[in-house]
Amino acid sequence: MRRAFFRKNDIILLAALLIVGIAASFVIARPKKSAGDNASVLVMIAGREKARYPLNEDADYTIHADGRIEDGLGSEGDYNIIRIENNKVDMIESDCRSQICVHHKPISKQGETIICLPHRVVISIESGQGGGYDTIAQ
Amino acid sequence: MTRSRNRISTQEIALLALLTTLALMFSYIESLLPAPGPPGVKLGIANIVIVLILFRMSATEAAAVNLLRVLLAGLLFTGLSGALYSAAGAFLSLAGMILLKKTRKFSMVGVSMAGGVLHNLGQLIVAALLVGQRSVFAYFPILIFSGIASGILAGIIATLVDMKIPARYFKRHRHQQI
User: Fold this and answer.
1) Is A82 in contact with A90 (CB distance < 8 Å)?
2) Alpha-carbon distance B114 to B56, whole Å?
3) Who contacts B86 (Cβ-Cβ below 8 Å, separation ≥6)?
4) List of chain A residues whose C-beta atoms are within 8 Å of the C-beta of residue B148
5) Within a domain: B175
6) Residue B107 within a domain
């Protein structure tokens, strides 16, 4: 007994899904605007804004998944370490299981994000409008 | 002695237990594989079992086996948050596959392909809810493509298996009266 793997409708479905995928790729891959001089690095944990740092001041911060953020390098509990350097932010260390955030390339353009799903930590770049220089602690 | 008409037979219980174990083993194998680059990209071989059950038995049985698989895999390998992701993915993909199967217009490969994409979409929605950020959807395109690929793979394997297994193995032996 031989049977075709694909039927006509399967091919139509495949084509439709491919089109959606390709269209979504174009939307995602839009060239991103440069974030400008006053750009800031936004740190969010579980959807809440925790801190905001200037992108043009080199520094390291340790973000704890429970909400604490300390300057420099730490290593206790669930943590992510970000490094701001040369107008770019990189996730340089994390004790999460997937390590996807650590492998992410440094970000510098407006709207770019590095996400650590296990710790629900998101860092993103915002263009420089408003008081981007203040650090908001809680 | 009268018994319910829908009483599940011993043979069916044994078969479903076996299939659940098989699906769980596939989940285990997947948990051993190193995670590829983008998050959420998976082989999806457990879906082979689910698609087979959906086509050879019924939606109810496919849902039961899938639910057990997600629960057990969560307890054994993936952890609670992992189980949350796979539960969302499994729920969405199964719902979609049941609907597509009902139209009778799609083969196992087509149904499985939709299931693969929906599974990834479900996980993405959970991820977006958990981090409270829509930017997670940057992974949407890659997850569509990987869902298509893994769905087709599982669908083709399911079709091959389906051709080899004699129909009587899935036959229902309902005890209508004893």
Assistant:
1) yes
2) 18
3) B70, B73, B74, B78, B123
4) 14, 17-18, 21
5) no
6) yes
| 21-50 of B, contacting A, C-beta below 8 A | 35, 37-39
Q: Residues A21, B144: contact at Cβ < 8 Å?
A: yes
Total-model pTM: 0.80
Domain residues for the domain of B76 are: 10-170
- What are the tokens at A85? 């350097």
Question: CATH no. for residue A88?
Answer: 2.60.320.10
Per-residue pLDDT of chain A (138 residues; tens, 9 = 90+): 456 788 899 999 999 999 999 999 998 877 777 777 788 999 999 888 889 999 988 999 999 988 888 888 887 788 999 999 998 999 999 998 878 889 888 998 888 889 888 888 999 998 865 444 444 443
Beta-carbon separation of B132 and A46 below 8 A: yes
Residue B71's CB: how many other CB atoms inside 10 A? 14
Q: Count up the domains in chain A and report the number.
A: 1
- Are the CB atoms for B148 and A21 separated by under 8 Å? yes
Helix runs in A29-125, H state only: 100-103
Q: Domain count for chain B, please give it.
A: 1
Starting at the edge strand found earlier in the chain, the sheet holding A69-71 runs A69-71, A59-64, A79-85, A88-94
**B133, containing H or E segment:** none
Report the distance separating Cα B130 and Cα A115, nearest Å.
11
CA distance B43 to B1: 49
Q: List Cβ neighbours of B66 (8 Å cut-off, separation of 6 or more).
A: B23, B50, B90, B94
